[in-house]
Amino acid sequence: MSKDKVKDSKQGLLTAFGIIIILMVGVIVFFASKSYLSNTKKEEKKITNTITLNYVTKNNEITVDSSAILTDEQAIILKSGKNVFDFSVNGKISKNTSCNFEIVISKDETSTIPDDKIKIYLKKSTDGTYSKVEDLIKPTYFELSENLKLSKDSGMLLDKGTFTKDDNIYYRLIVWVDSTYVPINSQDFYKLSVNIYGDM
Length: 200
Known about the structure:
The chain is an alpha+beta fold. It folds into two domains: 1-45; 50-198. It has two helices and ten strands; from the N terminus they run αβββαβββββββ. It has helices spanning 3-44, 72-75, and strands at residues 50-55, 61-65, 69-70, 84-92, 99-107, 118-125, 133-141, 156-163, 167-178, 189-198. The strands form two sheets. Strands 1, 3, 4, 6, 7 and 9 form a six-stranded mixed β-sheet that branches. A four-stranded antiparallel β-sheet has the order 2-10-5-8, with no helix packed on it. The protein is elongated. 20% of the residues are buried. The model is unreliable at 27-46 (pLDDT under 50).
């Protein structure tokens, strides 16, 4: 083999080897940058605390009228109907954080039945079946609370607490017109809305 051919062969090998090295460096840089971008996206994704009020009716309101006049004994055993508002509170809490909440019922100002004739009863369940029930508020009259800290609106405090992990709390609110009420007309009514406030 002539010297020129040997020289050309060496140059060809060096060129091929150089191209392979360039390709390998390119592949390494590509995967390294992809891994960096992937890690950056993960770091930017922050989990925030959320609390949600869930209810089975079409809105968060309960309305009673003069046909809902009941005694306490009749009201507290109700399980369904227009006097009963079942709802739950769901908390999604990120690690090592907490979220305070208040559940508040507020009166619609167009209501015509007096506040002191509206009674409420609140039950709390751990599993949503109401087989294990805790009476949070025994039959009492609707009354504005003065110790609301999170609510932006005036209302009556039903319950408050702190979520420190993902959890669900179940409630049953029963509202009725006190048996001592004498209806003024058949269109008397009282409307309440149930809301939740948190300090996320």
